[in-house]
């Protein structure tokens, strides 16, 4: 998606450790017009795919997932990173390693919100090593539901997450795939 690639070129920062900081438009401050256009693009890409729910992990994926859910007219469910007092029912859970926070989380989704009848699109802001998405895939599988596809705003193509998910047979649609980043701020996108 040229619009997103241009926004990354203009406003993103490359930090040491292969970190792409997009806080000023994607995951700290949200550009709602950009989110709307991203949701439209995912709806176009999956227009012939039956979808009953959108699933993401809190918190950075929620804005993108909301936009996708709105375009499909289906509920958005997000996995919480910690079971809390307001999630007191039975849950599906998965362990997920966060590259950004350098820690493991147990993410949970109430069994009330996903059933074996659901056809689910997974949505996230970033795809690097695939840990978050593999956790969501486990949760969907534990519920007996079906993953219909995976929607990613920005994929780090130089890491193996996207490649491995595609090799497992999942349809992964990324709006921007970064093939290379350098510490001096240069970003190369996949053609």
UniProtKB/TrEMBL annotation:
It is an enzyme of class 2 (transferase). SUPFAM superfamilies: PRTase-like. 5-phospho-alpha-D-ribose 1-diphosphate binds at residues 128-132. Pathway: Purine metabolism; XMP biosynthesis via salvage pathway; XMP from xanthine: step 1/1. Pfam families: Pribosyltran. GO terms for biological process: purine ribonucleoside salvage; xanthine metabolic process; XMP salvage. It is found in: Cytoplasm. GO terms for cellular component: cytoplasm. Xanthine binds at residues 20, 27, 156. GO terms for molecular function: xanthine phosphoribosyltransferase activity. Residues 41-157 form the Phosphoribosyltransferase domain. Keywords: Cytoplasm, Glycosyltransferase, Purine salvage, Transferase. Its main location: cytoplasm. Homodimer. Belongs to the purine/pyrimidine phosphoribosyltransferase family. Xpt subfamily. HAMAP family: XPRTase (MF_01184). Converts the preformed base xanthine, a product of nucleic acid breakdown, to xanthosine 5'-monophosphate (XMP), so it can be reused for RNA or DNA synthesis. This is Xanthine phosphoribosyltransferase. The lineage of its organism: Bacteria, Pseudomonadati, Spirochaetota, Spirochaetia, Spirochaetales.
């Amino acid at each position: 998606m040229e619009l997103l690639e241009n926004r990354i070129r203009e406003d993103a920062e490359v930090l040491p450790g292969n970190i792409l900081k997009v806080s000023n438009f994607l995951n700290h401050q949200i550009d709602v017009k950009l989110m709307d256009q991203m949701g439209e693009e995912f709806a176009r890409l999956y227009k012939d795919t039956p979808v009953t729910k959108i699933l993401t992990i809190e918190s950075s994926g929620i804005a993108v997932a909301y936009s996708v859910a709105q375009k499909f007219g289906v509920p958005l469910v997000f996995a919480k990173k910690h079971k809390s007092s307001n999630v007191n029912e039975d849950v599906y859970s998965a362990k997920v390693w966060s590259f950004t926070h350098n820690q493991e989380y147990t993410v949970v989704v109430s069994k009330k919100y996903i059933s074996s009848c659901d056809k689910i699109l997974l949505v996230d802001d970033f795809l690097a090593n695939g840990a978050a998405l593999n956790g969501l895939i486990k949760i969907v599988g534990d519920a007996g539901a079906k993953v219909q596809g995976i929607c990613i705003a920005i994929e780090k193509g130089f890491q193996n997450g996207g490649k491995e998910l595609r090799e497992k047979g999942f349809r992964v649609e990324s709006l921007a795939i970064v093939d290379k980043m350098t510490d001096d701020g240069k970003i190369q996108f996949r053609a």
